[in-house]
Amino acid sequence: MSADRLLVALDVESGARALQLADALKGVADGLKVGSRLFTLEGPPLVKALVARGARVFLDLKFHDIPNTVAQAVDAAVQTGAWMIDVHASGGSAMMQAAAKAARDAAARTGRTPPLMIAITVLTSMDDAALRETGVERALLPQVVALARAAQAAGLDGVVSSPHEIASIREACGAGFTIVTPGIRGAAAGAEKNDQMRTMGPAEAIRAGASYLVVGRPIIAAPDPRVAAQRIVEELTTSR
Ligand code: C5P
Fold first, then answer.
1. For the whole model, what pTM was predicted?
2. Which of 108, 123, 201, 236 could form a Cys-Cys staple with 186, CB 3.0–4.6 A?
3. Which atom of ligand 1 approaches the CA of 189 most closely?
4. Right CATH number for 2-225 from 3.50.50.60, 1.10.3720.10, 3.20.20.70, 3.30.300.10?
């Protein structure tokens, strides 16, 4: 269903505002992303409250540490009821394998459906020069594709990708791989780009091969977030 493909980034300053938005969006957009700011402010009780309201929560904490620590963090994330969890692919294959195993084990132990385990490849704030600074000589796109393949080989379900990397990742990793795409602007997502440099419209990104779209400010900063989300869902529904 088109509405299931939309994930709203709850980049807000308080749990109260997050719950208000969740209620306003209920039935239109029930996929919600909680990032490190909101989680650091409000913690697991907020994630549990969103899950209790029927939301699918993408807990976007981008874990990156030694395998044992990441496994423990993923186990803790599963206990919040998160539906999607992410780790940095640059943490390496052993770390990603530990994350995937911890997700399966924690889900089995607590009687839950295993979460979707997603990898961050290269942060979209980085360019070739920034990548070189970290010791990576390869250009950005081949590095993104190499890390996506490594994530898949380690047993993760997908990656976060900028709109313009979708086609290459889809080609490399196949139809069953999950691609989560922020940087959605234009068409029903509005003309205001904020700080997003390389954007794509909602329907265009789905056509390019995205599985899920992450949309923040075009919805949460709109005068009526529910109407803004509805417009995007309509665009996705009518353009298929
Ligand atoms: O407000 P906006 O639609 O730009 O929000 C996009 C969301 O996706 C934010 O939470 C941002 O941190 C996140 N994100 C991103 N680019 C990435 C990864 C995540 O914009 N490469």
1. 0.95
2. 201
3. 3
4. 3.20.20.70
